[in-house]
Amino acid sequence: MNLKTLAVATAIVTSLASTANAADQTQTSQAIKNVVLVHGGFVDGSGWQKVYNILKKKGYNVSIVQNPTTSLADDVAVTKRTIARQDGGVVLVGHSYGGAVISEAGTDPKVQRLVYIAAFAPDAGESVQSLTSNPAPGAPVPPILAPQDGFLFLDRAKFAASFAGDVPSDEAGFMADSQVPWGLQAAGGAITVPAWKSKPSWYLVATDDRMIPPPVQRTMAQRAGATVSEAPGSHAIYVSQPEVVAKIIEQAAHGQK
Q1: Could you tell me if 209 and 118 are in contact, meaning their C-beta atoms sit under 8 angstroms apart?
Q2: What is the average pLDDT score of the chain?
C-alpha cells in the first residue's frame, strides 16, 4: 500500500470513528422516556399517582410496579417483568424499601439510571433489616408492630406522624388504614450485586423523614456516588411533594448531574 492509499484509508477510518463517536454521544445525551416506579413497604403503587400524572403530561412512558412485598426475590421478579415490557432504556425509581428492590433489579440491561426517593440503597450482603438493626442514639424509631404471621405493620395511630407527617390528615389516615403487609422475607432480603455500583444514580433526601433518618439517607447516597438533592418533607415525600420528586426523575432521565 503506497502512502497516498494509506492516507485515504486512514481518513476513511477516522471519519467512520468520528461518526460512531458522535452517534454514541447523541444516544447518551438523549432523554430516557421510560420511567418505572417502585413503591416501598406498607404501601402500594397508588401513592405514585401524582408523580405519574406530572410525568405523563410531560410525555414520559410511566409504569408503576405493584409488588406483593412478600419477599425481595418476588418483588425483584415482578419489577423485572415490568422492565421487560419497556421498549427501550429505563429510569428505575424506588421509594423506601423500593430502593432495595431497584438495587437488585437495576442490573437489568434495560435499566440505565436509578433514582432513590428517601430510599434504602443497600450494598452487597445488606438488607433493609440489617441497615435498620442498630439505629443511632436519638434517632426516631418507626412504630413497627410485632410480626403477625411473618408480616409487619405500622401502628395505625402513629402512622401519620412517622410516615406521612406532611400529608393531609384524611389522606394520611387512609394510608394508615390501607396498609399492605410487609413480609419479613422482603425486609430481610439481602442484595447480591447492587446496581448502583455500575449504573448512575440520583438520590432525594427527605429532610423531615422519621422512618429513615436523613443522615442515614445521606450516607447511603454518598456511598452510591449518587447525585443528591434535598427537600423538606416526610417519608411520604413522593405523595406530599410530587413536583419535587418528578423533577429529580426528569433530571435523571436527562442525565443531568
Answers
A1: yes
A2: 90
Amino acid at position 9, single letter: A
Letter for the amino acid at 73?
A
Q: What is the tens place of the pLDDT at every residue in 128-181?
A: 999 999 888 889 999 999 999 999 999 999 999 999 999 999 999 999 999 999
* The listed CATH number (3.90.226.10, 3.40.50.1820, 2.60.40.10, 3.40.50.2300) that belongs to domain 26-141+179-253: 3.40.50.1820
The three grid cell numbers given for residue 237, joined into one nine-digit string = 415525600
* pLDDT value of position 7: 38
Instruction: Enumerate residues 6+ apart whose C-beta is below 8 A from 167.
Output: 160, 175, 234, 236, 239, 240
